[in-house]
Amino acid sequence: MDSVLTAAPRWWPAPAKLNRFLHITGRRDDGYHLLQTVFQLLDYGDRLAFSLRDDGAIHRVTALAGVPAEQDLVVRAARLLQEAGGVEIGTDIRVDKRLPMGGGLGGGSSNAATTLVALDHLWNTRLGVDTLAELGMQLGADVPVFVRGHSAWAEGVGEQLQPLDLPNRWYLVLIPPVTVSTAAVFSDSHLRRDCPPITIRDFLAAPESPQWGNVCEAPVRARYPEVAAALDALNALAPARLTGTGACVFAAFETESAANAAWQQLAEDWQGFVARGVNESPLNTVLSTEF
Ligand SMILES: C[C@](O)(CO)[C@H](O)COP(=O)(O)OP(=O)(O)OC[C@H]1O[C@@H](n2ccc(N)nc2=O)[C@H](O)[C@@H]1O
Ligand SMILES: Nc1ncnc2c1ncn2[C@@H]1O[C@H](COP(=O)(O)OP(=O)(O)OP(=O)(O)O)[C@@H](O)[C@H]1O
């Protein structure tokens, strides 16, 4: 008898980001902070798989510690797209997680973006990148950059994006054993909120200048000794930065072997990884090669 072969669903990448620097220039009336930042995408992250269902249900197959299915950004993203596109098909969603939660690597946001982009194809809604980015913004400030899929200069609350081609670098990322609450950092009274605005040209004239720092670093250092220790350990080898509101910290290297050599010196004491910075998201590569 012939066996029925069902193709395994493909894995869709959900890459991490680093904030090369993070300045706060003011605050909106609703309390959200106005930022200037550069998002560097990485060739490293989570993976998601989707199996379509004809009963319309959105079902998360893999558990995520501390996050009930209804609050999971992948479930919320799928629901949002289902409503916006008037879709009657559902999906099972499997998430292969590598990125730490509350790490400042944008894992949850990237999972949401990959869900929007992948299901826009698999459900054939074809809403397009602008509408998907607008939907993504409703889920989190970092979702649009992952939807658009290019390393970028960002302003506003992170939604005003200009694609950037950043120098080729390898990154060593350390993951301190602590979760940082983004909301808590943004409400810290010691957070600097009056950075003078810079232009994209100022940044591009000296992208690796130490004058572009992360204003969250001081309050996060003060609250989380584990993050301070990670910054100190990495700073002994190369200039280290906090990404987003932390907890992860990173340093840039010109070659993979230099990044790996630094990692070898720290791997006994820290969790972490080495990844290549990419200007184009691995998600775009899947779209352009397979769809
Ligand atoms: C710090 C960054 O990671 C930089 O890339 C992002 O701006 C944070 O983006 P995110 O994790 O998607 O954050 P959200 O889930 O949108 O917001 C979490 C909380 O952080 C605060 N928040 C966030 C972004 C922002 N520009 N100003 C804020 O004050 C708000 O209190 C908000 O309720
Ligand atoms: N699929 C998901 N993956 C990760 N976190 C999720 C997910 N769904 C909901 N969350 C919630 O979102 C919170 C933030 O997760 P995320 O991984 O985006 O943090 P982050 O790396 O600090 O991101 P950012 O840089 O955007 O602040 C988590 O603490 C978790 O409660």
From TrEMBL:
The active site is at residues 17, 142. It comes from Thiohalophilus thiocyanatoxydans. It catalyses: 4-CDP-2-C-methyl-D-erythritol + ATP = 4-CDP-2-C-methyl-D-erythritol 2-phosphate + ADP + H(+). Transmembrane segments: none annotated. InterPro entries: GHMP_kinase_C_dom, GHMP_kinase_C_sf, GHMP_kinase_N_dom, IspE, Ribosomal_Su5_D2-typ_SF, Ribsml_uS5_D2-typ_fold_subgr. It comes from the Bacteria. The keyword Kinase applies. Keywords: ATP-binding, Isoprene biosynthesis, Kinase, Nucleotide-binding, Transferase. ATP binds at residues 100-110. Residues 216-270 form the GHMP kinase C-terminal domain. Belongs to the GHMP kinase family. IspE subfamily. One of its GO terms (biological process) is terpenoid biosynthetic process. Pathway: Isoprenoid biosynthesis; isopentenyl diphosphate biosynthesis via DXP pathway; isopentenyl diphosphate from 1-deoxy-D-xylulose 5-phosphate: step 3/6. Pfam families: GHMP_kinases_C, GHMP_kinases_N. This is 4-diphosphocytidyl-2-C-methyl-D-erythritol kinase. GO terms for molecular function: 4-(cytidine 5'-diphospho)-2-C-methyl-D-erythritol kinase activity; ATP binding. Its EC number is 2.7.1.148. Catalyzes the phosphorylation of the position 2 hydroxy group of 4-diphosphocytidyl-2C-methyl-D-erythritol. Residues 73-149 form the GHMP kinase N-terminal domain.
